[in-house]
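Problem 12. The chain below contains 624 residues. Write out its predicted structure in token notation.
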Amino acid sequence: MVLEKIQQENDIKKLSKAEVLALADEIREFLIQKISVSGGHLASNLGAVELTMALHLAFDLPQDKIVWDVGHQSYTHKILTGRQAGFDELRKYGGMSGFPKRKESDCDCFDTGHSSTSISAGLGYAMARQIKGEDYRVVSVIGDGALTGGMAYEALNNASRIRSNFIIVLNDNNMSISENVGGLSKYLNHLRTAVPYQEIKTGVANSLSRIPFCGEGIVERIRRTKSGIKQLLVPGMLFENMGIMYLGPVDGHNIYGMVKALREATRFQGPVMLHVITKKGKGYTPAERHPARFHGTEPFDIDSGIPLKKRVKANYTDIFSTVMFKLGARNESIVAVTAAMEDGTGLKRFHNKYPERFFDVGIAEEHMVTFAAGLAAAGLRPVVAVYSSFLQRAYDQILHDVCIQNLPVVFAIDRAGLVGSDGETHQGLFDISFLSSIPNMTVLAPKNKWELSDMMKFAVKFPSPIAIRYPRGEAYDGLREFRVPIVYGKSEILYEGREIALFALGSMVKTAETVYQKLQEKGYEPTFVNARFAKPLDEELLLTMARKHRLIVTLEENVLNGGFGEHVTEFLCSSEIDCRILNIAIPDDYVEHGNVDILRRELGIDEASILEEIAAAIKPAGRF
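Solution.
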């Protein structure tokens, strides 16, 4: 196997042309085999195999810098830099990350996980190189989906100022996670299909180059001028009008064609965009047919592409999907907004039934939130469906455009808390902290699937900004017998006892139920409260419980700093009540990738760890 010859970076350059072509097929087979076992990002990586190989043939790593946008398509890059063995522990706790990590390899020059960042980071490298007088190449790889993000245009606007070589590779597969939307997608579609222009450009260049003595020089001068062939034939070309040399489109699955184009791009002193056309999921039929489903996949059967683990119970996204579908029928003012995550957030059914009330804005979270604010100001009831990790990107818009105006925008926050294998860039551990710091914002978290439904019904009638956070994975169906109507700012007492009071929020209610039962087995009669609201606090109930109990325990799946527990502590301390408070939360740190159960144990928020913390807190006067 050719793949066995790749032990470290730049080994690909030692291969013959025939071996390089064979290597592409072997890498695809390797990725399909490994990801079918571990799960991971398949479609994006299959589409970027030849592109990555061309980059490694054209440049020298780690001296030259390749900045990957998002980074979920960097698996081939990891293979070509000697990390094949790491795929057996891909995305597992203590194993290799599914994204570029500087601490993992010198060939990973920038950590990524969110979209539309690579041009900014690459431009930073290029400017630093210029200031320090160093000599290396900088390449930023960005997808056409990521190019819908506003940050990418801010970077393009600034890239035009650089006078040294800076290469931007546009990996154009007509997809983000969901299918691309908007004007940019139409523009790129036009460029992809502009065959007459490509033929004329190539024909003119070939004819000129055959002129003895001066032909090549004429072609080179035309390439370097803003009044070149492209500007004559395609007036108003977007990138060149921004001061960025445009090359392409080129076939993203022709390795040596791309190597040639990349080397041509290095000759230009300034920013260059190389437009590469690829097919997401290439080489594996199920992924080609369903690229969104194979964007991030669980372990699957290779022959059929069907997931190995059959879902028996609905997850929280399924519950949200069903509730939105029903709410849409009852209230014509309800509209749904998402950022390239129609499938991931569960809005596909709503879109199919109410297409005129569904908006996918592309990878543009900032625009998504302010757009929703405009919808709300005009009298509609927008529901913004978004992952916790991605909502961070729109903090200013939440504060400035939604909350200052006190507009009734509903934020349905999926993947809140630990998400597991995608790691630190995707864990939803900060939303309680940053949302609860904003005036006019209300934050809730459901204890089970029925309460998520009740909270959504409450939220779409609420007159102010409101956020509901719920975790990834199977929806908890316990505690069904407790279904007290949602009342603003009020918690729900599940069991009332003495000495110890457990205040659990959202996903931690399930954990607290086990803790409650274990405490009973030890002879205690604890109080068990479903907090429901992270903001506002149920101050009346907290005061009552603090007067009656020796220990108040708060439980949440959010960082400690600025979280629910810290707000409870601050409130009770300011009330000068003599009661001990124990906050169970995520330590103030970034959490690596790994199985959620393992992470909970390592972070001290599993049942056993919580019982140990409670024992230590009450030991002086307790019976542990």
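Discussion. DSSP finds 25 helices and 17 strands in the chain. Students who got a different answer should revisit the alignment rule from Section 12.3.
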